[in-house]
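From the shared-data thread, chain only:
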Amino acid sequence: MSCEPLPPHFSPLRGRGTDQNPMNRFEKIIFEPDPDEPDINTKPKTEFFHDTTKSLITYNNSPDLGFTAGINIYRGCEHGCSYCFARPYHEYLGMSSGLDFESKILIKANAPQLLAKELSARKWHPQVVVMSGATDCYQPVERRLQLNRQCLEVFAEFCNPVVIITKNHLVTRDIDVLKKLAKHQAVKVFISVTTLDAQLGGWMEPRASRPVHRLKAIRELSEAGIPVGAMVAPIIPGLTDHEIPQIVASVANHGAQSAGHTIVRLPFAVKDIFTHWLETYFPDRKDKILNRIRDIRGGKLNDPRFGMRMAGEGAYAEHIHDMFYLACKRSGLDKSRTVLSTASFKIPSRQLTLFD
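Structure, as tokens:
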């Protein structure tokens, strides 16, 4: 698909996925800006706050996920993806799922120290840890803070297996550390590729790496001997689903060893944020896209049921899944996947002083 140029009067909020700040569903009081005052959201700067959490590794028992342990160093994400399912988590912090989510980022500055402490605890059972389960661990501020890199160094010290999911080429900065983990069969990286259209990617994921750079990251990781796969996720019915065969073929040609996929889900305020995004960029296709999503969500824009929230149901959902699996078979990505190992796990001496 080639996106049409926007009309001359169109003026999106540069570098942001939304200019909306919908009401927090937990709050009874809302802020209504004075129409006579300058709009503070015309050029919002990203603000960073300290997250004083006392633990880092979180656990889940969801049957929809292939892991139980994960870490999120950053809460909120500057990538600004309009469809992001993690947006509503910001409401637990008293903020909005909209512009707040991508412009007010909480940082766990002591993440490496917390990780070393938790991996060395007696109750820790060596297992795969995912970075990140919600927000992207390689969002722009990581270039400066390098907290994710420091956590990878901790994982390498302990030889504890880790899976990375990101849509940022910045992951290639840490190839030297990833190689150390790869020697112990303790790492795999998944690069998320939602579209191959650079313009669409810029509109939909404004501060994430463009598609060409994500493919480049796959190639660089593969050539460095790092097990790498691709996530064709989320697939947006009526907007990106037709790209599935081309995306799968492209990631395979660049060295991906496997691929996974999910279909977009729009929980809570994300429904309104994404609908507004469609009204802004694709007003002529908005109804078609939303109806396609409703078609696989039982007439709604979101289905929170386990087993359905990632995959959807119905004939159109099956069509998407069949298209994906056929594309993987044609590209050789339907083979067995890399199995990570905890066999090399160790608690290094002096590990608590290394990160003080």
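The chain has a mean pLDDT of 92.
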